[in-house]
Amino acid sequence: MSELTHRERVELSLKHQEPDRIPLDFLGHSSLLLDDAYFRLKDYLGIQGDIEPFRHGSTANYYDERILEYFSIDFRRLFLLVTPAGQMLYKDTNTFICPWGIIWRRHGIFIHAEKSPLEGLDKGEARNYQYPDAQRVWNNQGLAEKAQHLHENTDYALVARNPLTYGFLDRACRLRGIEQFMMDMVLDPEFAHMIIDNILNVHLQVYDLFLSAVGPFVQIVETGDDLGAQNNLLISPTTYREFIKPAEIKLNNLIKSLAPQAEIFRHTDGAVFDIIPDLIETGVTILNPVQPSAAGMDSKRLKASFGNQLTFHGGVDQKPQEGTEQDIRGEVRTRIDSFATGGGYILSTCNHIMAAPPENVVAMFDEALVYGQYPIGK
Q: Model's pTM, two decimal places?
């Protein structure tokens, strides 16, 4: 097969057909570089000149198209803009308040919710809580023109980047406190449903604002919500189906109405095998990051069980990234061998790159470009 355009390559793989090589993704949801790793890689590649971070309030804040170009990445992302009213309010260098009223604090390479605004409130008090106003916090000015320009003048697959980062369970736990919201779902389900409904209302407004501008031009729309830990789900399948799944169905229905040609990308870390059929029922067609070190998430098992229904995205695990060059090249070959046959695989990291040496990042994509040629292993 002759070399395809980036977009053609992605579209074939999403249709579960084999293109010329596996598509490659980087600097998207769950595949950014932590800031220190970004600057190390940038210096190693000899990329000159600084850029502005695309966001604040994280330890992974840079989206650099010069790096994407260097590695022949097949995707480019569109970002919903944040207004001045939506900027983080810093109390000190490491502590800030986000538009949801959550107080966050940086601890090393991690950001934790230090104060949850609904913690300790009863239902009456919580009903008066002011959730973010989408029109005040976000805006889509100029996005339609940018998306159309990229669609018509580049050959990249375009992605509507997750504009909210956290999903329904993630956000509820940070608004209410993890322990309290987990108890709410058992002891006061009406209260828990009220919180999820309010979060859903914000999501619907934000995705409507975003996709009304970029929806006609994108191939993928990102969503996310962490439902798994290393060895099990964070909540039972029954609890997921009662509280989270109905909200995801409503959100995904809106996404498909505004971007009917786009695939729905769903990020969730951890051991989530038991609810993958539910995710498919909500409309998800791309699953990220398919973490192979989590219980039950063996790559070959995932491909055999759901390979006809899902495109798998990610898979390159953290530990080999930080090992030897031989380790990372072997990891890339393992994921390609497990996922790539018949299309339906986009290679990327399994989570943000934390401490991988820049040599290993180069080796990862170099191996993917060489070993990921179809037919695989020939």
A: 0.97
